[in-house]
Amino acid sequence: xxxxxxxxxxxxxxxxGVIASSTGLLLKTLGARVTSIKIDPYMNIDAGTxxxxxxxxxxxxxxxxxxxxxxxxxxxxxxITLGRDNNITTGKVxxxxxxxxxxxxxxxxxxxxxxxxxxxxxxxxxxxxNLPADDSNEKPDVxxxxxxxxxxxxxxxPFVEALRQLRRRAGKDNFIQIHVSLVPLIHDELKTKPxxxxxxxARSAGMxxxxxxxxxxxxxxxxxxxxxxxxxxxxxEQVIGVHNVASTYHVPLLLEQQGFLxxxxxxxxxxHLEIPASLVTKGQTTWxxxxxxxxxxxxxxxxxxxxxxxxxxxxxxxYLSVIKSLExxxxxxxxxxxxxxxxxxxxxxxxxxxxxxAHYKAWHDVTTADGILVPGGFGTRGTEGMIKAAHWARTKxxxxxxICLGMQIxxxxxxxxxxxxxxxxxxxxxxxxxxPLIVYMPEIDKVNLGGTMRLGSRPTYFQENTEWSKLxxxxxxxxxxxxERHRHRYEVNPDYIERLQSAGLHFVGKDDKSERMEIIELPxxxxxxxxxxxxxxxxxxxxxxxxxxxxxxxxxGVFGQIQKLSxxxxxDLANGVANIxx
Length: 582
Hints:
It is built from 21 helices and 23 strands. The protein has two domains: about 1-290, P-loop containing nucleotide triphosphate hydrolases (Rossmann fold, 3-Layer(aba) Sandwich); about 300-575, Rossmann fold, CATH 3.40.50.880. Strand 10 (about 210-215), helix 8 and strand 11 form a beta-alpha-beta unit. By secondary structure, it is an alpha/beta fold. Helix 1 (about 15-30) packs across helix 9, helix 4 packs across helix 5 (about 115-130) and helix 19 packs across helix 20. The strands form five sheets. It has a nine-stranded mixed β-sheet, with helices on both faces. Strands 5-2-6-1-7-10-11 form a seven-stranded parallel β-sheet, with helices on both faces. Strands 16-17-20 form a three-stranded mixed β-sheet, covered by helices on one side. Catalyzes the ATP-dependent amination of UTP to CTP with either L-glutamine or ammonia as the source of nitrogen. It comes from Aspergillus nanangensis. Pathway: Pyrimidine metabolism; CTP biosynthesis via de novo pathway; CTP from UDP: step 2/2. GO terms for molecular function: ATP binding; CTP synthase activity; identical protein binding.
């Protein structure tokens, strides 16, 4: 097994995840099988109980793992399927070691950070790195490991020591480290001192970077690269400039243009691997599609304006996978995406008195948008504003997509304004509501919050006489069921289904027992769809999520073309969209 460790210095949040994902993508162009691991030094067992406004979105995997958002980047870029063990946290590792100690696995020894914790980290990495991550079911050749946080943080110390030891354990030509550092631009001059200090700190901790990825506002000039190389004891070709680009999808192209892949493959001796010719061809085809799709966006001028009506809009990373899914679909529809961020609280009547300027701006944004999207969320804040947005979309024939809470909101709005159930609400929003349209799922733990929701990949079955469904046509007319990832505690109350359906709200998809409502859709609307699952978790650059693709295509006025192309190229859709871009 070969390892690529990506660490960061100077500041956090400078793009380690994108660089790690881009590295994996480029290695796949050589035919190498790649998997990924993210190390998060926080004490939480997983990301499930974290506020999205603090840490960004919680990404959900097929096995129900609630993990860091960077694992979403890995899956989107590499086209792989990861599991909960691909995300290592301090809490997980300590829990693992303590459980072993309680069982007596250490035979009476004093359990210490070194060697017991560091050995456990190395064993965990080696075990997970060898798990298949793609459809081939073959063991990966390379594992990209991202160390979260900033090198030098006290909570990272055990992981840094474990990775230092892992270099020796992996052996020569099987381990490289990429250190991502900030090169700030001050008074129009690129400053290298922070990077020099970051590399000194890395070496003092026992880590020896093989490549330095320099994040900067503008293109790194040759003189600056040579200066960094000289003071950081690497060759100039081992200094890579990663300046700001139009989108993160351009980062792999930027790295490839600087000879990054050759340096990495030479250091890891990738050419010594026995790689089947079919994988090389597949990797090259994927790379060609990636280049075609990303560069074609530079020649696109038509915009599509999407109002994202949410409650966590103060931190856009709270909806990272939703943003990426919209981007994937906009690229497929040859549109420039313009996301209009709308705080749902500002749409409520109370905001007219407390903050009239924000209230009227929010309503202007909603009423002038090409499409309205209400994503998932928890709690009561802003939900009445979401209901008003759903009402506008339904009555004004504006394309609407509701995800998880957004679907529940659409059901409540329909019940109130079409079925005459004026007290319709969710027990999450009002425990004493007279008409509980949305209820707690009976099997859910109401006390322990971590990892107790309905999580992971679950099947949805299309119902009889739903061939008219626009969404179903995009998934493929031959398919009777789909698998999508879930994360929710509440569901549509079965007692109201017949009344809602008879009033025109169709439940197109249900679970395997026909007890849980998975998809709602209005037949006489350009696009009014709600899904209980989270389709954003499975969207890929070359294979956009179908609910998002239909939504963006409808908002762009090109749904008919996308629908025809998807029906004509159902097999192509399963592999990518490069051949059906309109």
